[in-house]
Amino acid sequence: MARKFDFDPEDEEFFSMVGSFGVPKFDNEMHGGIPRGFTLIAFTDTGSGSELFAKQFTSPAEESENTLYVSTNEGQAEIVRIFQKYSWPMDINVRTIGEEYNSTVLERELLASRYRLEGFQLADIQRLAQTRFVDETNQDYLTEVTNEIMALGPYFRAVVDSLDFFLQREDPARVVAMVRMLQAHAQLHRGLLLISVSTNGLDPVIKQELSSIADMVLSFKVRTIGTDFETSMIVSKFRNAPENLKILVFRVTPEEGITPETVERIA
Amino acid sequence: MFELDQRIAEQLTEVALNSAVQVRCGNSNAFMVTASTIIPLMQMFEMGGVYISANRGAVEIIEAFESIGIDVSKIQFIDLVSSGILGGTDVPYSNIHFVDSPIMLESVLLRTLYILRTTTSERNFVFLDSVNALAIYNEDRILAEYLHTFINTFRQREILSVVLNVPDQTPPLVLSNLDLYCTDLIDRGQVVIH
Amino acid sequence: MQPAAVYTRDRCVTGIHGLDEILRGGIPYGSTVLAAGTCGSGKTTLGMEFLVRGALAGEACAHFTATEPSVKLLENIRQYAFFDMNMVDSGLINVFDMDVLYSWLGLEKASFELDDVHALIKAIVDIVNTIGVTRLVIDSVTTLCYKIKSEQLIRDFLFTLGKKLATLGCTTILISEITSATENAHWSSFGVEEAIADGIIVMGDVERMGHLLRFLQVVKMRGTAHSRAKHAIELTPLGVMLTPMLKWGAQSDKTSRWGS
After folding, report:
1. Fold annotation for A9-98+140-265
2. pTM of the predicted model over 0.80
3. What ipTM describes this predicted complex?
């Protein structure tokens, strides 16, 4: 028998059946927003504005303590700068995996190459002789992130930007399994989950699997038109609402961030 | 009242530290002969020592000594019997060391040497009880070779070795070798039954 | 005519009861000795006692442990009366966990390439040189060599390491894990260690009527005459003790006269 979760009627009224994208014009195009419980997978091209969109997705932050932004590429300072720039809520939970990885693993690698090149000094040897255990360098970020999202309560909002970090370091099957688990969690708790993954070098099989798990599939594209760039978001899957499949061309403005310009319905 | 054979003590007064004494006994007087040998060594000559028990478990020997009022807590026992009995090594005495089997002859020798290295006594003896018990498990040639090594090892270290033996239960090859290696003989092998 | 002067190499006196007599005074200084033994044969204890005896004589010693964590090794070795934890605390005996060393050198990988092997040699030699180590134990070289996939690379590793340590006057025991210590067995897992080592000490068990007796046998030691007989050993709280194994009981049952 499927698990059932009882939601407070007051909460149901407060959160309503749909949540915002963080981009009002997108909400309008999607007939009010994203149904609660949806997992969105965004396949992204480099320079297509997906990182900004990922941040903007957290901006509605209905409950800041129940909102999580996981970045695998950017540092805390850069994220804060963007949030400040657009006046998005700053009190949400932010995890910067890339920064953590750099400060532990990469720093260690740097030190290792110094030892290999220059050798050990007496102080290094004394420290080595007193070190009984290996520092846990192989931190399981995948499990940590999964657990962190699974710990969020009903009506949560979470973003993982991007899955590439995990796909490059872990068994892809494990990563897909994690996405599947998170999708189930989002569905059960009426959460909104956005996961971005770069299309560069992405295995078509993994792409296919992720697409089938997702409730909504977005593709962020960029192309050049003359001397200009055109960025667009293609909604290629919207569970139970094929009428929402669209191509939304957008630009980035200093006031609103992602701002849709034209909309084209996919036949 | 338990009566010791005083003549054994008298004979022992003439024995040097680097001697090897063969003590012959019969089945029925084995403990009397053992006690008559050990007690003077401990009390008259104030020696420490190692008792190697291949005949009976060390607990039984300690209890036999205690029953005649002799404290053997200063003697270290190497028990070659009790490891072969389930639960046999769970004993209330801290002066008992166990070797798995009487066939592990080298281990017995090394364990004895180890104990002697840790002992505080200036003069020590090693009492082997008994050659005929070892002969049950060990083939003639290895036992003869062992006794040769055993006796010479302790003679070289000025440790008195006393080897208990029931002659009619000891293979002839071992017996003749023992006669050859030992410097002294205490013969209580002929028992007169009154 | 005057008799030619007899040249004898200086010795590293192991201090292990009986072993120095077998080696007629000790291991020639700077030798790399393979201590090859089956599991439970006393290799680690022998290696540790070798270091402790050196530390007691004021020598700086190093132990690289790859088979068990140093915490466990030190806990196990504490039961021996010859060992004093102060030797470790005061830096006379330096115990290094190989996995920590691997991690520091970025060698947390399944197999080592040439660069990695060179990095490892450099690290060990650096340690020996910096703290003036005169006695070194690697426990075990088998575990270490499992990461080196090519036989040629293993040979290079051991040869270069041995040469550099000899130059520094460091006497080294490389512990090697073998599955059998019988006459027909190899004394190393990869076959190359035994050819490169200056000395080989084999440790194993003789089975006698269902009981295992530990033995030690020096089969090779360059630079010294030595006994090649099997010696029974006992691991006592005072350390390793040896006595010649009885000739009539020096072979396992299957080859001895007790066999069927």
Report:
1. Rossmann fold (3.40.50)
2. no
3. 0.88
